[in-house]
Amino acid sequence: MKIAKLISHLSGLLRIGIPVSSGSGNAGSIYFRHSTRTVGLLAFKHALPPNIMPLLRTTRLTGGGAIIGEHRIHRWVVDSDQHLFGYDLSFDAADGTAAQRLVFSPLSLKPSQLTPLESRRRQLPVDRLPSPQALRLGRSLEFSLSTADGRYKVIERINFS
To answer: In this structure, is residue 149 part of a structural domain?
Structure first.
């Protein structure tokens, strides 16, 4: 009963998540911002009673990064067990409007092509990616991203201006 009450108490916090990674940069004439936060009980294991801790994995998300190009962004998140997962985001102007047409695809770079710190990591496949869509400049898009094995789920927020 106490575990159910604790989980119920944390349910509001589970929607908020804990920040994992954020950054920004220029992608041609577009300024890109991104942030990632965790979803699920693992995000809050530091707030759980000690008798529940053995039930949770000790692996945690520790950061991430992005390589920003003219019309493509490679975005990834890393964990403490030498894994990473992520996506590629291609974009271009949508029909002369103040919007960008976004197309998501699996991360195309190998860990060794990212940064020297990531070169030893093993890449985890993602479950599914958002469908192509338009994002108006100055607006944000928020979507969930999970690994295919269900180990991690994060909320990703991106913005172009």
So the answer is: yes
pTM for this structure? Answer: 0.79
What contacts 83, CB < 8 A, 6 or more positions away? 121, 122, 123, 124
Question: What is the domain extent for residue 134?
Answer: 20-38+60-160
Number of other residues whose CB lies within 10 A of the CB of residue 116 = 7
- Residue 68 falls within a domain, yes or no? yes
pLDDT in tens, 64-120: 999 998 889 999 999 988 999 999 999 988 776 788 899 999 999 999 999 888 889
Q: How many angstroms separate the CA atoms of 39 and 37, rounded? A: 7
Reference 75, options 126, 40, 38, 28; nearest CA is: 126
> Is 100 inside any structural domain?
yes
In total, how many domains does the chain have? 1
SS3 category, 139:
coil
Query: What secondary structure letter does DSSP report for 125?
Result: P
The verdict on residue 44 lying in a domain is no
